[in-house]
Specification:
It is a single chain. This protein folds into two domains: about 110 residues, Rossmann fold; about 180 residues, Dihydrodipicolinate Reductase, domain 2, CATH 3.30.360. Helices cover about 35% and strands about 25% of the residues. The chain is built from eleven helices and 15 strands. Helix 4 packs parallel to helix 5, helix 5 runs antiparallel to helix 11 and helix 8 packs across helix 11. It is globular. Bound molecules: nicotinamide-adenine-dinucleotide. Nicotinamide-adenine-dinucleotide binds next to helix 1.
Length: about 325
């Protein structure tokens, strides 16, 4: 029985801890977070030990693997502690906001043959998995263009966004990873534009709320990512992959497929699922289960620390494109 520590008792760690507790092949040994009230309540609910020191939790004898869901600036420390003890890690994105620090950490993980999976949960969304399967089976021929739409239902407070690292490293980073996996080739060029159409005060944080990014691969495949921090109709998450023999796309998700018809309106449907915790619930579960299955079978993990670095680099290239007004070559 694989025994797991979950670090963090906040939003994302709640999801991971519940998914660990629900997996019959593992034991949730401990949840750790310096936020005593939060960790005590979560551990009591899931029936495991609570700890207030994450480093101690990683080192416990009854912990074989670690899931990191704490604040971004703690990821590298906890990741390297676990790797040095030979314990596999599922770590939330991003590795760190500082590219230099993240690059050093990834090199260290690789030097130590560490087993680290980066939490790009959208790869494990059932829609995305089905699309990737269809692409791999040649159903749409050679991929030519990918279009990714990712809009949040509403802007978080400036106080929260202050620690986010900005829209590219916090939000669009998921889309950079999705672009890499759907294109099937690494982007070599990035062009980005950015605006403050929702809240001009984001200038105080040197951040933006509405961005568009173009990516091009060496063979000329293209991707268009558009992200906005506010969509009044809800969480808008759509993918379209266009190829030489067809196209594959998905729709937004809703609580049900019910449609209402009346004298004034037709095809009226329920609102979109509210936000990422609801929309991507399946993806978090599948991601965690794939981590567990790979660790138990001594198989390679489905994503790596280097995947985290590549997505972070694309985010930085987009920032450079905005600052210079030019296309940026991806050199990594
Ligand atoms: N994959 C996704 O869809 C997704 C979604 C949300 C957040 N995230 C990532 O997950 C991480 C956590 O985000 P969140 O929204 O859950 O944040 P959160 O604020 O809800 O939770 C973070 C937790 O970390 C704890 N913490 C703070 N400092 C700590 C320290 N030094 N050691 C241990 N714990 C510490 C806090 O007490 C808090 O409970 C971030 O890196 C974020 O980017 C990923």
């Amino acid at each position: 029985m694989l025994r797991i520590a979950v670090l963090g008792a906040g939003r994302i760690a709640n999801i991971h801890a519940a998914n660990v507790a629900a997996n019959p092949n593992v034991q949730l040994s401990v949840i750790a977070d310096p936020w005593r009230e939060g960790v005590d309540a979560l551990a009591a609910r899931l029936g495991c030990a609570a700890a207030y020191d994450c480093a101690e939790a990683i080192a416990r004898d009854d912990v074989d693997a670690v899931v990191i869901g704490t604040h971004t600036d703690t990821h590298i420390d906890y990741m390297l502690r676990a790797v040095k003890l030979g314990k596999p890690v599922l770590c939330e994105k991003p590795i760190d906001l500082d590219f230099g620090k993240a690059a050093q950490a990834v090199e260290e993980v690789e030097r130590l043959n560490g087993n680290v999976m980066l939490g790009f949960n959208r790869r494990f969304d059932p829609d995305t998995l089905q699309m990737r399967k269809a692409i791999a089976a040649g159903e749409i021929g050679e991929v030519r263009q990918v279009i990714i739409t990712s809009r949040d239902p509403g802007l978080a407070s400036l106080d929260n966004l202050k620690h986010s690292g900005g829209i590219f490293r916090d939000m669009t980073i998921h889309d950079f990873d999705t672009a890499r996996t759907l294109l099937g080739e690494e982007p070599v060029e990035v062009i980005a534009i950015a605006s403050r159409l929702v809240d001009p005060d984001l200038a105080q944080l040197d951040d933006w709320d509405s961005v568009m990014v173009l990516l091009r691969t060496a063979s000329g495949k293209q991707c268009h990512i558009n992200c906005c921090r506010e969509a009044v109709y809800g969480y808008d998450q759509r993918l379209e992959v266009f190829g030489s023999k067809g196209m594959i796309l998905n729709d937004n998700h809703r609580p049900s497929s019910v449609r209402t018809y009346s004298a004034g309106q037709t095809e009226v449907r329920e609102p979109l699922l509210n936000f990422f915790l609801e929309r991507y619930a399946d993806s978090y579960r599948i991601e965690l289960n794939q981590f567990i299955d790979a660790v138990r079978a001594h198989q390679p993990l489905p994503t790596t620390a280097r995947d985290g670095l590549k997505a972070l680099h694309l985010a930085n290239c987009a920032l450079e494109s905005i600052r210079t007004g030019r296309a940026v070559k991806v050199e990594l």
